Amino acid sequence: MSLRLENVSVTAGGRTIIHDVSLALEPGTMNVLLGATLAGKTTLMRLMAGLDKPTSGRVLIDGKDVTGVPVRRRSVAMVFQQFMNYPWLSVYENIASPLRVARLNTAEIDRRVRRAAQLLGLEPLLDRLPQQISGGQQQRTAIARAIVKGADLVLLDEPLANLDYKLREELREELPRIFAETGAILVYATAEPLEALLLGGSTATLSQGRIVQAGPTLAVYHRPSDIESARVFSDPPLNESDIVKEDDVIRFGAAQALPAAGALAAIPPGPYRLAFRADIATLGAPWPASLSLAGRIALAEISGSESFVHVETAIGTFVCVERGVSTRQPGQPTSLHVDAARVFVFDRDGRPVAAGSGG
Amino acid sequence: MDKPLNNRAWLLVAPVLLFVLFSALLPMMTVVNYSVQDQMGENHFFWNGDAWFRDLLNPATEVGARFAGALVRNLAFSVTALLIEVPLGIAVALCLPRKGWTVGATLVVIALPMLIPWNVVGTIWQIFARQDIGLFGAALTGLGLHYNDTQDPVSAWCTIVIIDVWHWTPLVVLLSYAGLRAIPDAFYQAARIDGAGRWAVFINIELPKLHKVLVIAILLRFMQTFMIYTEPFVVTGGGPGNATTFLSIDLVKIALGQVDLGNAASMSLIYNLITITLSWIFFTIMTQLDRRREE
Lengths: 359, 295
Hints:
The complex is a heterodimer of chains A (359) and B (295). Chain A has helices spanning 41-49, 91-101, 106-119, 135-148, 165-180, 193-199, 217-222, 227-232; strands spanning 3-12, 15-25, 30-34, 56-61, 64-65, 76-79, 153-157, 185-190, 202-207, 210-216, 239-246, 249-252, 256-259, 270-276, 281-282, 290-302, 306-313, 316-323, 333-339, 344-346, 352-354. In chain A, 23% of the residues lie in helices and 36% in strands. Chain A is of the alpha+beta class and 359 residues long. Chain B has a single domain (70-294), classed as Orthogonal Bundle (MetI-like fold). Chain B has twelve helices and two strands. In chain B, strands 1-2 form a two-stranded antiparallel ribbon. In chain B, helix 4 (102-115) runs antiparallel to helix 7. The longest helix of chain B has 34 residues, at 62-95.
C-alpha cells in the first residue's frame, strides 16, 4: 500500500493548522516526521489515520481517494505518546483486541498475540492488567497491539517520549526492525533530531504546519533546503548570524570582519544569513579554513560523553560541542573556530546559496 | 514505645468531641433510652430490657409484621430506583454535548429538579398526578390506562418511583458526566483505530473509567432512597393500604401517631443500623473489587 497526501490543509477555529501538505509514503519504508511541539505532527498523523478529515486536499491510498473513509475501514495502527490500553482487559486481551474486533478465530489470535508478546518481551505479563505493569511495559503492550493488527500503515506518535532513557534506547532500536518485516508504511513522529538520525529512512521536517523539506534523512540533515529545516534538524539549536559579503571579507555588522574562507569565498557580494551546527565549531585547533571568533565561555552544559559549550562573542552567543565532560569555567576567554568549509549560507529568503554540509 | 503522654492533646480535640456529643450522641442516647424502657401513665418509665427489640424482629407480632413489610418495601424501592436511575443517568450523560454553550445550558436544565425541596417536589407531583386536573394523571387516564395514585397500589408505587427518578437521576447524570469528561480523547482515538464499536468503547473504556464515580453515585442514591419519606408522605400518605408505607413513614406513624415510644425507638435504631450496614457492605465490596484489580 502506498499513501499520498495531496495539498492537504486543515483549518480549525479560523486558524490554519496544516498548510498545503503534500507527501508520498511507500510501503516498507521508515518515515520520520520531525518538528517541535505544535508543529502539526499529530494532526498530520490523524489525517493519515483517517481520524480527521482535511479541510481541503485529498488523501490517496494506492491512488484511490480515501479522504472521507472512516478509520475503521482502513488498515492502520497507531501508538500514542500516552500509554493507551483498556484498563479492565489483561495484557493478553489488550493485544488481542483488534483481532477480536476483526473476528479472527481463537487459535489464530493466540498465535499472533504470543508472537507479538515474544517480540516485545511481554510473555510473563500476559495475565496482568495495565495498572499492574510499568509505564514501559504498558507502552510495549500498546506497540504489540499495533503489531498484531498487521496494518499497512503504522503510525507512531512520539511513542518513546514518556519512557525512561534505557527503555527508549532499547525500543528505538527494536521498533524499525519489528515493523520492517511487515512491509508496512511506518510513520514516526518525533521532536528530537537525534532520534530521526538514529531511525534513518526518510525525514520530513515540519514547522508551523508546513512540511519544510522531505527526503532521505541524511540528505535532509546535510543539505537543508531552507534555514527553517536546518533549525528543526539541529540540537543543540542552530547557530545563526547575519553577515554581509564584501569582496574577500565577510562583515558581522559593524563589529567584526573576517576573511571570506571556505564556502564563503565563492558567494557573490551581498547580505546573507550564516548558520552552523554546534559540531563544526570547536574551541581546540583551528580548521584548515576557519572563521575564528574571540569570546568568553558563557555556560557549559555537560551531557556525559559530550558537553555543549556556549561562547559569548562580540556578535552573539554560539554553541559548540566538546568531547567528554567540559571543565571550562564561565568567564574564561577563548576563541571559537568554525569550519568555514561546512557552514550553511542562506539568502534573505532562507534559501541555501552555499552548499556546506553543516556538520 | 515510651512516648511521653501529653494530655494537653485532649484540649485540642475537645471542641469536636463536645460538638459530636451534642449533635449526635445525646439525641441518639434519648432514642436508646426510650428503646429499653416502657412507660406507664404520665412520665412514669420503667426498665423493659430488650423486649421492644424482640417484638420488632419477630414477624409474628403486630409491630414485627409491620416492620418486616416496610423493610421489604424499602429494599424493593431502593433496588428499583437504582436499577432505573443508574443506567438512565449514564445513558443521559453519554448523550450530553461535550463542548460549546449548550453544555452549560443542558447541565443547568438537568440539575433543576435537584434544587427543588422534597416537600415541593411532593406537592408538584401530587397535583401533577391527579386524574382530573393533573397533566400526568389526566394524560394517562385519557390514554385509557387505569391510573389512580391514591387508590391503586401499582399506580401509587409507580408514581413514587417516577418522582424519585425525576428528582434524583440528575445526580447520577452529573457525576457520570464529570467522569466521562475526565477520559482523555486519545483513548477514544485508540479505540477507533482498533476498530472498536460504540458498545465496545462503552464496556472497555467508559465503564472502567466511570466506575469510581459510580460507586459514589450508587452509595448516595442507595442511602437516600432507603431513607425515603417526603414523597410518599405528601403524595400517597403511605397508601393505598400499606402499599407505599416505607420504614420512615411507619416510624413516624408509630412515634407521633400512636406515641409508642418504645416501638418507635427500637425501630429507628434498627433502621439506622441497617442503613449503615448496607452502605458499608456496598462500599467494601466496590472498593475491594477495585483493590484486587490494582494488585
